[in-house]
Specification:
The chain is mainly beta. It folds into four domains: 30 residues; 156 residues, no CATH class; 103 residues, Immunoglobulin-like; 51 residues, no CATH class. The protein is 10% helix and 36% strand.
Length: 362
């Protein structure tokens, strides 16, 4: 009786060792590291295998795991976890012999639209337990880009759609808000890096203070971004499609977010008088550029501003001697109608006559 107890106890110990070994190999005890910067979290759902956790922060596990999306390459890495089938790998090294080439790692396309609009998820993931299965299940999970219900990430970083994992895994849903899903769950990237932008675009009209100089328009905008602005490009064209810009200038520098930018365009050398124009701007930071942002269209002045010119007689007047100023200004296509003279130290000190007479005390 005692011997039987010993054998039974030894059998329990042996079974326990085997179970622990299996758990260490294929369960949560497997050494899994996706790094300290896993940016994907939350849960997916499958009617076949239940919840799929994309980060240990989601399920409270002490094991450090998670799925990470490289914002430089658009490729996923790391691990998700299912209580029923174990680890699901997104690592490229585990995805080299997929059923249908090309055997690319799961990635987003197009990467440059991440944070701007929906980006598709394509490629493969794999349940590692499928590598050891002897019943024909291989563990492959396909993100079928271009098909109805395909998986994608929206501009806020939330996953949507489905992936197919054969009869064992079935369909994995990534967002309970999707049609046909249901439930309060989702997989998310959290805070998606947003591209820089420009706001409050305005263009100033030439003021009366510039009537005697070169006519110009000033273009203003406010840069908005998570990092400093490194470059901007401004285009001005008389066609709304900007097919052949009359003015196209790119400026590099280092400007903090929230600060104003401006660019001055001289009318008589770069634009045409009496014309209607459109303008737009694009801004850059270290991560990329904005889309083109349109400013309000504007009209240039009907004709060039007057060219002010005058002479006086005598050329070297004495104190209290009458000095006659003669207006030689050119008003181009229209006659000069109004004048405003200012004489510092003269009497009178101002005049609106065409040819005023002035005396100076010294």
């Amino acid at each position: 009786m005692q011997k039987r107890f010993f054998n039974l106890f030894a059998g329990i110990i042996t079974l326990g060792v085997i179970f622990c070994f299996a758990f260490l190999m294929y369960g949560r005890g497997q050494s899994v590291r996706a790094g300290s910067e896993e940016n994907t979290s939350g849960y997916g759902w499958s009617y076949n295998i239940g919840w799929v956790s994309f980060n240990n922060l989601s399920d409270g596990s002490v094991i450090n795991y998670g799925v990470n999306l490289s914002l430089d390459t658009g490729i996923f890495s790391g691990y998700a976890w299912s209580d029923n089938i174990g680890w699901i790998s997104f690592n490229e090294s585990d995805l080299t012999d997929c059923p249908e080439p090309p055997c690319v790692a799961t990635k987003v396309v197009p990467l440059d639209e991440l944070g701007r609009s929906d980006v598709a998820i394509k490629g493969w993931a794999r349940a590692l337990a499928g590598q050891q299965a002897d019943d024909g299940w291989d563990g492959w999970i396909k993100f079928d880009h271009g098909k109805t219900g395909e998986a994608y990430i929206d501009s806020d970083g939330d996953w949507h759609g489905w992936a197919w994992g054969s009869d064992v895994v079935g369909w994995i849903s990534f967002n309970g808000a999707d049609p046909g899903a249901g439930g309060n769950y989702k997989v998310t990237l959290g805070q998606v890096p947003q591209p820089p932008t420009a706001t409050d675009l305005t263009v100033s009209e030439p003021s009366s203070a510039t009537c005697c100089g070169t006519a110009h328009h000033n273009f203003f905008w406010i840069y908005q971004g998570s990092e400093n602005e490194t470059q901007f490009q401004i285009q001005v064209d008389n066609n709304p499609d900007f097919s052949s810009p009359e003015y196209d200038n790119t400026v590099t520098g280092d400007w903090p977010p929230g600060g104003p930018n401006n660019q001055t365009v001289i009318v008589d050398s770069q634009l045409t008088f009496g014309s209607h124009y459109y303008w737009r701007v694009k801004v850059w930071d270290a991560t990329g550029s904005s889309d083109w942002i349109d400013g309000p269209s504007f009209d240039t002045a009907a004709h060039p501003y007057p060219l002010v010119s005058f002479h006086w007689n005598p050329l070297e007047p004495l104190a209290e001697e009458d000095v006659t100023f003669s207006d030689d200004s050119v008003c181009y296509s229209v006659p000069c109608t109004d004048r405003e003279w200012n004489f510092t130290g003269g009497t009178p000190s101002t005049s609106q006559d065409e040819n005023p007479v002035v005396r100076f005390s010294s």
